[in-house]
Amino acid sequence: MEAAFAELPLALFTTLAPLGAGALLAMALVGLVAPSALAGEGASRALGVRGLVALAVAAVGFAASLFHLATPAHAPYVLANVGSSPLSNEIAAGVAFLVVGAVFCALLLFGRPQVAALTAACVVMVAVALAFGWFAGQAYVMRTIASWNTVLVPVQVVGFMLLEGAILAQVLLRGGALDVAAGDARARRALACLVVVGAVVGALAFAAQVMAVQGMVTPLVSGAQLLAEVGVFLWLSVVLLLAAGGLAAVTALKGLGQVPAGLALALAVAGVFIARLVFYATQVSAGL
């Protein structure tokens, strides 16, 4: 696992940025399934404030990724190849998410959106967040790295985003005028579905992708040896992800307090972070 820590900035980025994006996605989904619960001015403003918290978490993730660059000041040049470069597409999708997220929160904070306007804003927010999660994973799919050259990589990133983001939304959607998680059955079911789908899809896609490394061999690298070195962390992350999903689903459906939701969030973030380190530790380049 020592080699994986060389990718620590990217591990933080792919843990925190999808966490914030997933939270905004989950909040927007609540707005779609239970618009009446957010129609009041107080609830709308409260959602905007909590949305800014989620946006800040994502921004921290983006900031962490800059430390992976030799010269962070050159980061804007990454956008030069949008459309042809998966990395440029990822950054473009990330910028679009941050801009749309900021507009979404501003609309809720300073406007008085009607149900139709709120619904439209929520649809756009969900779509842009999903696009960012997909492109964030797609940036790693390349022919030169055999262990990453699979659709399971973006699938697992989206799964992680749904899981940890929906749990963060559970924590944020509590209290005052915005006690949605405990007060609306449709919102509770939506959040429970998100965490279950995210946990199952993320954990299975991650485990399948990493386990496939076992059969990869190059003159310098043995996939089986790499897998043996990180096997315990692989299954630890899977257990953490599934446990987080189960606890968060029960918390949402039962309308429990922030303590179990906070515990589920800690389990999910730990599981995703460990999974990302395992992902980097099991890199097998086709050219070696």
Fold and architecture overview:
With 288 residues, the chain is an all-alpha fold. The protein has a single domain (2-281), classed as Formate dehydrogenase/DMSO reductase fold, CATH 1.20.1630.10. Helices cover 72% and strands 0% of the residues. It is built from 9 helices and no strands. It has helices at residues 8-33, 41-65, 86-110, 115-138, 152-172, 180-183, 185-211, 223-254, 258-281. Helix 1 (8-33) packs antiparallel against helix 2 (41-65) and helix 5 (152-172) packs parallel to helix 8.
Average of per-residue pLDDT values: 84
What gross morphology would you assign? Answer: globular
The helix/strand series, from N terminus to C terminus, equals HHHHHHHHH
CATH class category? Mainly Alpha
Largest sheet: none
Total helical segments: 9
Helix content: over 70%
CATH-assigned fold name? Formate dehydrogenase/DMSO reductase fold
Domain unit count:
1
Note the beta-strand portion.
under 5%
Distance between the first and last residues' Cα = 19 Å
- Detail the poorly predicted runs: none
- How many strand units? 0
CATH architecture: Up-down Bundle
What gyration radius follows from the Cα positions, in whole Å?
Answer: 19 Å
Q: Classify the secondary structure makeup into a structural class.
A: mainly alpha
CATH homologous superfamily title: Formate dehydrogenase/DMSO reductase domain
The protein's oligomeric status is single chain
